Amino acid sequence: MASSDIGLNQPTSEALQQQMLVAQARMKTGANWFIVIGALSVVNSLISLSGGRIRFIFGLGATEFVDALAQHGGSISPTLLLGLSVLFGGFVALFGFFGRKEQSWAFLVGMGIYICDGLLLLPVGQYLAAAFHVWALFRIFQGLQGLNTLNVLREQQSASMVATSGSWNQ
């Protein structure tokens, strides 16, 4: 009788594992947005300091202000300003690192900071960049949802294991 219980639970266990893999992939994809945003912000700063006119729209608004200071700041060292951009970009990328480690606080705090960063763009008329911030926030939020789903599925898996071990004792 116990062997028939195991046979009935196996497809559910496989389906649960598949759902967990999907949720984990979704979580990591959302966390990766922080890493990409941080990296592209630094690339934007390097392009700006070298006199280039192209920019990646997913960069940080804060680094755009730093880049503007580098171009028009006069006495401020471009190396110092590049260092600030690297600091900002690295800070945002850290949220991706901790998000990939399944830390929900990283998603929440990182999203809050990225919202504030997007709000910096509105007064200077960077509406398209602000709209892309909204898109990136949506994708990051999907990562948080993936993490929440993963946690629920793990709880279900634990409950299923407890129930299955109980049937072995009978």
Characterization of this structure:
The structure is a single chain. The chain is mainly α and 170 residues long. It has one domain. It contains five helices and no strands.
Shape: elongated
Mean pLDDT score, rounded? 87
How many alpha or pi helices? 5
Q: Radius of gyration, rounded?
A: 22 Å
Give the count of structural domains: 1
Fraction of residues in H or I helices: over 70%
Q: What's the N-to-C terminus distance?
A: 10 Å
Describe the main β-sheet briefly.
none
Number of strands: 0
What features would you highlight for this structure?
5 helices, disordered N terminus, 0% strand, 170 residues, single chain, mainly alpha
Compact description:
By secondary structure, this protein is mainly α. It has five helices and no strands. The N and C termini lie close together (10 Å).
